[in-house]
Amino acid sequence: MGYEVIAVSSNMDKEKLAKELGAHHYFVSSETANTQIQAMGGAKLIVCTAPSQSVVEKIEGALGAGGSIVIVAAIPELKINPIRMLSMNQSVCGRYSGDSRDSEDCLHFSKIQGVHPMIQKYKLDQVNECFENIGNARFRSVIVIRNDNE
């Protein structure tokens, strides 16, 4: 969509995946990441998918002038610096997603942008292995159980 994408996570484990999925930069969430993002001009938009109060509170410092934070994860409480946000013309909003219109928009966007799911297939006799690995998927892939004839 014309933006330079920066992925931020808690460790370096996800860097390869983030870049394979199109991130231009990858930073570990810390004060250093905020400094690096601010050196690039600050973030125009931060989409926070981590259900962690401390993550959102830390990443607020990466937001640039006129920028917005969109929270799409359930966070029970959030402490932000309203003076900084007012002086920098920044905003925070929440976005509930998950209804049928969101799914339709997501599928349409995926089609026109060539976004494809990562699929890991298991044969029916590997069902136990599949269920053992579900915890490792971390919403990065779709797990399909199929019979031997497929």
UniProtKB/TrEMBL annotation:
Alcohol dehydrogenase-like C-terminal domain location, by residue? 1-107
Q: What is this protein called?
A: Zinc-containing alcohol dehydrogenase
Alphabetical UniProt keywords: Metal-binding, Oxidoreductase, Zinc
Origin species? Cavenderia fasciculata (Slime mold)
Q: Which domain of life is it from?
A: Eukaryota
Picking any one GO molecular function of the record gives: oxidoreductase activity, acting on the CH-OH group of donors, NAD or NADP as acceptor
**InterPro entries per UniProt:** ADH-like_C, CAD-like, NAD(P)-bd_dom_sf
